[in-house]
Amino acid sequence: MLDIPVFCDLEELREKIGTNKKFFYRVLYSDDKLYKEITIPKRNGGSRVLNVPNTALKGMQRWILDNILYKVQSDPSATGFIPMKSIVLNASTHLKKKYILKMDIRDFFPSIDFHKVRSLFFELGYNKDVATALANICVFRGQLPQGSPTSPYLANLVCRDLDKRIYNLCRKYKLSYTRYADDITISGNSKIFWIKGIVEEIICSYQFSLNNEKTIFLKPGDRKRVTGIIVNEKLSVPRSVTRNLRKEIYFIKKFGLEEHLDKNSFAGSKEQYIAHLYGVASYIKMVELTKGIFFINQLNSIFSGNEQLETGKNLHIEFASIDWTIFDE
Prior knowledge:
By secondary structure, the protein is α+β, with helices and mostly antiparallel strands. About 50% of the residues lie in helices and about 10% in strands. It has a domain at about 240-329. A hairpin with a 2-residue loop joins β7 (about 225) and β8 (about 230). It is globular and about 60 Å long. The N and C termini lie far apart (about 45 Å). Mean pLDDT is about 90; it is low at about 315-329. InterPro entries: DNA/RNA_pol_sf, GrpII_Intron_Splice-Mob/Def, Reverse_transcriptase_msDNA, RT_dom. Keywords: Antiviral defense, DNA damage, Magnesium, Metal-binding, Nucleotidyltransferase, RNA-directed DNA polymerase, Transferase. One of its GO terms (biological process) is defense response to virus.
């Protein structure tokens, strides 16, 4: 039996979450003003839009995440945004494999709508009113918002059956399977390209679709990268990532941050740029500890304490919005 709180009605739910009645019902009636739209520039061009809840709503969502969602186990194949799991674990599953198939689920978070989220809360045993309220707290404009603390783990729980079906298929043929958010990776030591069609059928049966432009087949002799990490012989960061970060640090030291940003035409704010640099350094640290610490120390020597503090407030946005394919170039 799940160790999750029980709510008889909405008032008990509100009291457990710890919010006042006026704000609670404002959330349930889906007030768009409770979210702020943030545009995060991608290094390879374009941008990603996040809808970030305000502090009070984020607190409600965080309570649901800590007290309900984290008490429910996701499928072991899911590796993204789960305590004690990371891109390193995701990549290590496919280390030294001869063949790798990488697929991307199109519009992953927007494809998880209110009905899927409410159905999940029904499955956890909540009555109609409570399940509906919990779903309304977690969705924005009828779908999971990128930028909300509950969205990644809710997505993992919604995809439990999907993950189980693909995992069982892969296990039957001695293949490895992981899913990091919308990134699906299958690997093995025999040709695996035939499995793509079957996996796509499974994905479509759960009302998702593949972004076929991002499907990648890797064979012996290819440089193999999974969630931005090279997995040929050992886990390592692509040289282009460390080279680019080293170059950014050099130019900041030479010209100063403001002048470098003007010359670089970075689309985001100064705070977003700093958060991006720390995000890349932290990513390097996860894979190659000594090298990552070196870059973080370099950044700390450049930026003031106030800038580091502001970066800490924004860094979770950087990680939540990372498009790992930028490291696959």
